[in-house]
Amino acid sequence: MDKVRIFKERLASRPVICSVRSEEGLREVLSFQDPRCVFLLGFSIQDVVRSVSSLTSRGHMPFVHMDLVEGLKSDQSGIRYLVDNARPWGIISTHKGVIEIAKGMGLMTVLRVFLLDSDALRKGRSMVSSVKPDFLEVLPGVAVVGMERTRLSDLGCPIIAGGLVDSPSQVQVILSRGVLGVSSSERSLW
To answer: Where does the secretion signal sit in this chain (predicted)?
Structure first.
């Protein structure tokens, strides 16, 4: 089973990734009949294990933002604990070392980069080149609207955009730039 291919197919039919930050948001995603891609942001270690299990049992594809899990260190042991006890589809991180460890354990990886300026773009491209994550999430998502398509494709990795996206029209414009999906905590977009 090629998880990356399955993830891309899921995004082709439902390009908005549910970025879940609360129990209320989790309950809403769990109520959906059709499976979604889900990013879990800011849960405790106990909640992550329970949430990933609940999401997976309903056919969703949960990713855990390792940098935001309360009570779980983003090191070899912490990621091993997550793999053994939660079994997410993948992880999200801003840290090169976390991505490398997760890849070594067979998880899909999303490298998150903040596009503040040209230097941040250059550093993001360099990190993608060295760690080769499965996906690159650029924040804020609305930044891709003003970027040349060639600059986006030069990043060398399938792109997800997230942050400050709160309308269907923004989602459509972002996707028209060649972006694979849009992560959003705006539940009206889910």
So the answer is: none
0.70 surpassed by pTM: yes
φ, ψ of residue 177 in degrees (nearest 5): -85, 5
CATH class entry, domain 3-189: alpha beta
Angle between helices 76-85 and 96-104 (to 10 degrees): 50
- What are residue 45's DSSP bridge partners? none
Residue ranges of the chain whose pLDDT lies below 50:
none
State the pLDDT at residue 173.
Answer: 96
For the chain, what are the domain ranges? 3-189
What gap in Å lies between CA 166 and CA 60, rounded to an integer? 22
Report whether the peptide linkage leading into residue 140 is cis, meaning its omega lies within 30 degrees of zero: yes
Q: Sort strands 181-184 and 37-40 into parallel, antiparallel or unpaired.
A: unpaired
- Asked if 94 and 67 count as a contact pair (C-beta separation under 8 A), the reply is yes
DSSP SS3 for 28: helix
